[in-house]
Each structure stands twice: as structure tokens, then as C-alpha cells.
Specification:
It contains 20 helices and five strands. It is mostly helical. The protein has a domain at about 25-210 and about 215-255.
Length: about 475
Amino acid sequence: MTRRAALLARLPSSLLPRPPQGVARRAAAAALAGTIALAPAAAPAQQRPLPVIRDAEIEQLLRDYAAPIFKAAGIGSRGAEIVILKDPDFNAFVASGSRIFINTGTLLQAKTPNEVIGVLAHETGHLAGGHLQNLRDEMAHAATIGMLGALLGAGAMVAGAGAGSTEGAQMGAAAAMIAPSIVERSVLSYRRAQEIAADRAALSYLDATGQSARGMIDTFRTFADQQLFAKQYADPYAQSHPMASDRIAQLETAAGKSRYWNASDPPALLARHAMMRAKLSGFIESPGMVARRYPRSDTSLAAEYARAILAYRTGSPAKAVKQIDALIARAPSDPYFHELKGQALLESGRAREAIAPLRQAASLAPKPGLIRIMLGHALLQTGDPALLDQAVGSLQAGLRDEPLASEGYRHLATALAKEGRIAEAELATARGLLIEGSVSSAQAYAKRAQAKLKRGTPAWLQADDILAYKNPKSR
């Protein structure tokens, strides 16, 4: 996990149909700007930046959690992508195409794999049910109804006033004011129905894969506790999600009938889950919080992992490397310990020393794309011209596995430029900028690259694709 979080993916500027001006704005806000979340969000997702973080170890664990669920839902192994957001809230959501976004807060707070698997099963229910597109269609329909209601109310108000009827004018004005509220409640009702459908789908996926729904229900119990004090004031018809206590009541009966209700997570999966939580804690939580979670009396592998990461993160590279070497001695075949050692050495200015552990990590990891990118960066950072070809090869191999890793394109551009391959360097820069959303800059570099490339070659066509790209924000 790099300390510099990169924006892997950006949502389109609008995921919503455009209702008539002034109509159904409250409904749009209530639908959370075209996202379908596990729990109600504080603000529409499109209004906030998405702080995406990348980590080979955690992403692999989430893929392993999700693979049986996706299969049960009829979603292929490449049918959905799980994106990790650095956000302390316990939440997950689907927001575009086939992406599930999950917060680091969810991963840190979930005590067992089963809790995270329950969250992924619920979000998979939204994906398999096509809920996001259906929600857009419902919002478009609701906006039309709202516009007609507002127009009819306004017409009645004018007609009543023209006829000298104060009562008629007042009724027309009331109808015009009520129309947006009706639209809002219609959309919220539709959202609640989708949530219930996703819950039921999740139960079926968990049962089909021999897993308990206990973790999913424990999650809803957490939400119920959060709603406890506000519940007496809450209007259940003004919620985008069913009240958590109601969800629990509806789910427990069905889930309790499953023969897998008492199924537990495999020990190996529990161990990986503990390592994931330790890694996140070490990287993103305060030193005090890490110390409280993992006191010195805790000599587990996970605790040692968290403390080694914290030492690296807080500027003690020699201490960190010593602690990481102790981890490697305990588990020499763990690719991510070697990756962490390489990262600590690279970012402390010891690029040449970082090469060996990163090569070892890449050879051991099941999906080493991100590690190969880091290895390419280390080879480049040595400043040794003899290693440039290896740097280019490692970066290109990593980007084939991770085509949206914009940082990899920046390193590749630097390596290619050092080799005098200017057109290819400009194309790599353009690709990285496009991923980051800098469309105009990407197209400027693509134009420069294309002018130097032979027409019709793959590189020329890639540049042409970038030039033909239309920025959603400019449409």
C-alpha cells in the first residue's frame, strides 16, 4: 500500500437522469446521486472526491471473499471490481457499472471475514438485480410525475384565482408544493424495496456457498444501535433504507432456517482477515490507536505486522526493516512481507536494496501487478542505465495486470524518456493523465505522441483513442 493514495477511478459527473429544472431535486438528493449504499450516506457520493487506495494483499483477500458470491449470483470472475476507499465510516456501495466500493472503516471494524462477506453479498445483490439502472429509470419516471403534479397544481392555482375562488387557488398552491414531496417518497420507497431485494439475494448467495448470514445480520445490528436514539423521531417513509431493526427482524427468521447458520470462517481466512486489519491500522490509524489495538504484550503475527508498518510509516526505516525481517523469518513464503520490505527500502532512498525483496514478492504473489510496478520504480530509481530495460519490462508487465494504475504510467514515461523513446513516453504520460481525469492535458500529450508515431500502429491507435475521448463533464 503506497502512502500516496491515487485516484484509480472517477465516477461520471452525473449518474442521474436530468429532471426538469426545479422538479424532483429532493428526490435526487434522497437517492444519493445514483449510488446504492449499504447504509445511508452523509452526502451524495458524486459531490465528494473518492480517495481510492490500492493494495495487492487486501485486494486479493477481497477477491477471494467475493469469488464464491459472484459465482452464485451469476457474475463472472471478471464481472465486478472491488474498490477500496479510505473512509472511516462502515459502508459500501455500488455506484457505476460493475464496481463495488468498500470503505476502510468497514474492513477495520469487521471482526470476521463473514461480516465483510455479508456486506459484499448484499452489494452483489444490487449488481445482479440491475438496481442502479432501475433506480435511474424510476427517478426519471418520478421526475416526470412530479413535473406534471407541479404543473397541474400551478394550473389549478391560476384557474382558481382567475375564477375568484380563494379556496381553489389555495388548493392549487398546496398541490404544487406537495408534488416534490410525493416524488421524493416515491423514490425512497423504491430504494427501500431494492434494499430488501438485495438482502434476500444476499441470503440466497450465502446459503448457496455454504456460508452463514450471521455476519450480515451483525452488521445490521450495528446500524440498529446507531439509529436507536433517533428512531423515535424518524419517519420510516422518509428513509432511503429500511430501519435497521426492521431489516434484522425480516432477515433473522429466514437466515435462522439455513443449515449454515452456525457455519464459521476457516482458520486460514480468519488469519488473513486479521493481517488485513493490522495492515490497515498500521497504515492509516494514529500511532496511539495502533498501540491500543496492538499492545507490546500482543506477539501475534498480525500485531507484529501492524507495528512494523507503523515504524516504516513514522520514519524509522532501519527499525522497520529489522521488524519486517523478523516477520519474513516467521513466514518466508508470505509475498506481502517481502513487498513491505521493498517498499520501506525504496521510500527510504535505498532503491537498489529494494529490488531483491520486490522480485521475491512478485514471484510469490498470486496477482503481482502492483508489486511489479513498484519493482519497476525501484529499478528506475537506482539511476543505473543498465537497469532501464528491466524497469520498462517490469512496469509494462505490471500495467498489463493493472491498466488503471496511473502512477505506473508516470514511472513508465520516465523510463522510456531516459531510453530516448520520446513518443512512447508521451503516450504513457497521456494514458496516466486520462486515468486521473486530466482529459485536456492527456489529449495534449497524445497529440504530441501521435505526430511522432507511425500511422496505424497500435501506439498511434492508442493515442487516437485518447484524442477521440469525450469528457463526460463537457457533455
